[in-house]
Amino acid sequence: MKAVLNYFFLQLKRSLAAFSRMMGSVIVMIALSILLAWGVSRSFSNVQMLEQVTLAVVLSENEDETEMILDLISGMPSVESVCTFVYLPKEEAFEKLKRREIEAAIVLPENFYDDVNHGTNTPLTIYFSADVDLDTSMFKELLYDGVSFVRVTESAIYSVVDMRDLYELKMSKKDTYAFLSEFYLWHVFGRGEAFQNHVLSATGEVNLVQYYITVGVFLFLLLGSLTFGFLYKEEEQILYKKLRLMGIGSSAVAGSRVIIMSVYAYVAMLLTWIVGIITGIVREKSLFSGSVLVPILLILPAFAMAAFCNLIYSLAKNQTQGMLITLAVNAFMLICAGGLLPLSYFPKGIRMIGEVLPLRLWMESLQRIYFGKSLGAYVWIAVALGIVCYGISIVITEHKK
């Protein structure tokens, strides 16, 4: 046991010396990578994902009130971001629809405004071309959602009006319609609140800042993992043979390597969390979870990452080959697993690959621990993968001896 501990502390001391020599280069590379990724991500997030669709509106003569209302609606920011209105005669609108110069045509019947104003549900007709693109399909979905809101509103209003007639309330039917319409739609179309409560983000359950904090931690760890190549030098094999004669087996050798890299990963993760907590106290708004369980839970992703890196090095024939393979694997994971840009920005094929890469599991695990999310399956899958990697590395180390 004493020999194992002496070997472990010797290797730990050598790791600290090797890592300190690369510290400056690692930090510079991380800073440049984060700035580049953050800039590209911000640019993507400001791009309008869907183009506006052009709608032709067909009005009857002397429909000035209807046109005024449509102008008001078209000027709303939520409408402007989706579509634009043009007023066309019916024949011209259908002709442009056939030529795909417009995406849809809305035909309003005669006296539409008067009918609506007096409580008559006069339907309007919307025509789409047979072959619609993605933007038009999205508009149709938004339209169907809006129609469902209106149907719910009407149902509520009619039910209350029926109660009014039953109990003979003093408010007139017209005033009841107007009051309930305004009151109910005010809540149904609380767009700001709806979007605040149901956020769809390219970065998942965390915001952009939290996402790139996690990315920064793993950039630091992956680049730093290149410093541990000395643990797998050819000269080490002679030492392992001597250790074996002393009763120290492959599991202890592989375990010492994993522990050394786990300590490195754990300290980096823990220091980031501590800095985040202190910054949150100063700013009176923390991005990190203040749970006392965080320091304990950080052991899990640290072990998972260390075990995987140990396996990659163990597969190589020598130190140089191990560092090159580690560099290639790290670069591939950073690109395909959302290490530089969120996976949502990539094509479906790359997203499918990225979802199963170890870096994706580590990032999801660290995000959930750092920011107080439920652990879910990601953390335990990452740990299980780490245990498998550790077991395989023991077999490989034994074979090399």
UniProtKB/TrEMBL annotation:
Native organism taxonomy: Bacteria, Bacillati, Bacillota, Clostridia, Lachnospirales
Compartments reported by the entry: Cell membrane
Pfam families: ABC2_membrane_3
InterPro entries (UniProt xref): ABC-2_transporter_component, ABC2_TM
ABC-2 type transporter transmembrane domain: residues covered: 26-394
Residues annotated as transmembrane: 21-40, 211-232, 253-282, 288-312, 324-346, 377-396
One cellular component term from this protein's GO annotations in UniProt: plasma membrane
Taxonomy, superkingdom: Bacteria
UniProt protein name: ABC-2 type transporter transmembrane domain-containing protein
Keywords: Cell membrane, Membrane, Transmembrane, Transmembrane helix
Protein topology in the membrane: Multi-pass membrane protein
GO MF term set: ABC-type transporter activity
Organism from which the protein derives: Agathobacter ruminis
Primary subcellular site in the record, as a coarse category: membrane
PANTHER family listed in its UniProt record: MEMBRANE COMPONENT OF ABC TRANSPORTER YHHJ-RELATED, MULTIDRUG ABC TRANSPORTER PERMEASE YBHS-RELATED
